[in-house]
Amino acid sequence: MISLVNGMYTAVINGKTVKRAKLSHLEYTIRKAAKSEPVASTPVTQSKFTINQRFGFLSDMIVMLANGDQPSVVVTGPGGLGKSHTVTTTLKKAGLKDMSILDDYEIGANVPKNAFVVIKGYSTPKGLYRTLYENRNSIIVFDDCDSVLKDTVSLNLLKGALDSYSKRIISWRADIKDEDLPTSFEFKGRVVFISNMSSTQLDQAIISRSMSVDVTMTTEQKE
Predict the structure, then answer these.
(1) Which of 7, 39, 91, 209 could pair with 162 as two cysteines, CB 3.0-4.6 Å apart?
(2) Nearest-angstrom CA–CA distance, 145 and 211
(3) CA dihedral 181, 184, 188, 194 (to 10 degrees)
């Protein structure tokens, strides 16, 4: 469990409390100690940190996710603050290619190993299942796609995708008419949720499986 205390990232590693000023430094320490299990954090909220600190935390969290050390990041706060820009820019700086616009790539070309896709708008549970399957080895960014965070079936699929088990198996046991979709598969990808909702409105099972940051600004911070 990673927690944030007085601006310091803190974790218990091999029975000892370790503190680092940057999330990437603590990540390195965790990896050096051969801890391969994903770690969750307490939410970063506006009551403890400045807006610049929280965006810095967000960038560090996305780097951790890009490196494969965290299965999920949740970003909440009103629109127009730069959440999406920060996430996609950080992923690109980490060496990942944006595969969101498939028209930019030749048909039949191999999908880059280090890639991410941005999903916007509405998705049915079955549409989510297909998205998870088609991007099972990549990073999926759900940007203002709150339908997947409200539907019970979709939430169950996401919980399976974000589990801390060595193998994350996702299943769809209802009838599947699409022959290219299996009834179950192993998900090795990672997920970012960007939402205008507050963290208190989201399913806590998703929050508990993720690192989360709320970039809501106070009136004073907006001025």
Answers:
(1) 209
(2) 18
(3) 70
| Alpha carbon distance 197, 78 (integer Å) | 7
CATH architecture, domain 49-222: 3-Layer(aba) Sandwich (3.40)
Q: Which is more confidently placed, 15 or 152? A: 152
Model pLDDT for residues 30-57, shown as the tens digit of each residue: 655 544 444 445 556 555 677 888 888 8
Q: State the SS3 of the chain.
A: CEEEECCEEEEEECCEEEEECCHHHHHHHHHHCCCCCCCCECCECCCCCCHHHHHHHHHHHHHHHHCCCCCEEEEECCCCCCHHHHHHHHHHHCCCEECCCHHHCCCCCCCCCCEEEEEECCCCHHHHHHHHHHCCCCEEEEECCHHHHCCHHHHHHHHHHCCCCCCCEEECCCCCCCCCCCCEEECCCEEEEEECCCHHHCCHHHHHCCEEEECCCCHHHHC
pLDDT digits 0-9 by tens, 157-190:
999 999 877 889 999 877 666 667 898 999 999 9
**Cα(118)–Cα(191) distance, integer angstroms:** 10
Measure Cα distances from 24 to 49, 69, 127, 180 in Å: 18, 10, 34, 39
Q: How far is CA 8 from CA 19, 39, 65, 116, 196, in A?
A: 6, 16, 19, 29, 27
% of the chain residues with pLDDT over 70: 72
